[in-house]
Write a structure and sequence with these properties.
two-stranded antiparallel ribbon, 7 helices, five-stranded mixed sheet, Heat Shock Protein 90, alpha+beta, 2 domains
Length: 331
């Protein structure tokens, strides 16, 4: 508004120097004489044409300058609005990240506290001098202690691996190992081969016996995390590992090898994943279903390891019978 007022004031001052040709009333018969008077050049008491043209040019320049000022002010306002929107989006992401981290801490506390409580209880029973336990009970307690110790160790390993999830450094791929061996070891480590609620269909064609150059521990770990995800989300929500299933689910691990890459296809008949969440599930701490135990970091770590091996992990969103993940490694 101040710019407009200044412009109008300048316009008035400039136009004040332009002769007003009709300041007084002129009779019709006097018009020729008036015209003759003001068209004669030069005369000492009239404004020269050059001054008039210069004044008009100055006005045009001022108008253009004013338009440019308005244009650049508009552009600045647009940039400011865009920056504000970016700030709002960044703030929303920060709030969502803080929410997920808080949820992660609560979930981690639960994941650690549960096996620790079991370990404390079982070890107290075994330590009781007057406890009379038969061999079968002792074997069960020892198995529970071993399983829960492994559960805590696995959780700590995940957290350590998560610290390197954002790394772009490629891992050493100097080891020779067959895709068949990677699949077999991953199935055992993930527990999918012994889960009571799962029928595992392990499809290993002859070409899966051919060796590839990779990092064995990282490749097995990445595939084990994908299989562990299938194991978890094929079980009923809230069910424990020892729960007796009412209906068995199917998990299929298929190896497909071609000249360019090896694909480990993991299919399950679990709760599935919406196609629009195909990328979100690989973000840190993301849990799409709060009724299932987990930390929301397994798939993040799996994709990180796969990419550092020159491959990838992605969700096949065209599959509707549950979830299908594709883990690829270069041949």
């Amino acid at each position: 508004m101040n710019h407009i007022k200044s412009f109008l004031l300048l316009l008035v001052l400039l136009t004040a120097n332009i002769p007003v040709y009709c300041q007084t009333s002129v009779r019709q018969e006097d018009v020729p004489a008036v015209v003759s008077k003001y068209t004669q050049y030069p005369q000492g008491d009239m404004v020269p044409r050059e001054r008039f043209v210069g004044t008009v040019a100055a006005l045009v320049f001022i108008v253009l300058a004013f338009i440019l000022v308005l244009f650049f002010r508009h552009q600045a306002a647009m940039r400011l609005e865009a920056a504000y929107m970016d700030l709002e989006e960044a703030n929303a992401r920060a709030q969502e990240s803080a929410r997920m981290k808080t949820q992660f801490i609560h979930q981690i506390s639960h994941e650690i506290r549960t096996p620790l409580n079991l370990l404390a209880g079982f070890t107290q029973i075994l330590a009781m001098s007057d406890a009379e336990l038969d061999s079968e009970t002792r074997a069960t307690l020892k198995k529970q202690i071993t399983d829960n110790t492994g559960r805590i160790t696995s959780l700590i390993n995940k957290m350590l691996e998560l610290s390197e999830a954002s790394s772009n450094t490629f891992l050493d791929r100097s080891e020779s190992i067959s895709a068949m061996q990677i699949a077999s070891e991953a199935a055992d480590i993930s527990g999918v081969s012994t889960a009571r609620h799962i029928d595992l269909d392990l499809q290993l064609p002859v070409e899966a016996a051919a060796t590839i150059r990779t990092n064995k521990s990282a490749a097995v770990r990445a595939l084990a995390l994908v299989l562990d995800n299938a194991r978890k989300f094929t079980a009923p929500a809230g069910a424990t590992r020892d729960a007796v299933p009412t209906k068995k689910q199917r998990v299929t691990l298929r190896v497909v090898k071609d000249p360019e890459q090896v694909r480990f296809v993991v299919e399950d008949t679990g709760i599935g994943i919406p196609p629009e969440k195909a990328e979100e599930i690989f973000k840190e701490f993301v849990q799409l279903n709060d009724y299932y135990d987990g930390t929301g970091i397994g798939l993040t770590v799996a994709r990180s390891l796969a990419r550092r091996l020159g491959g990838d992990v992605r969700l096949d969103s065209t599959y509707s019978g549950g979830a299908r993940f594709l883990f690829t490694l270069p041949s």
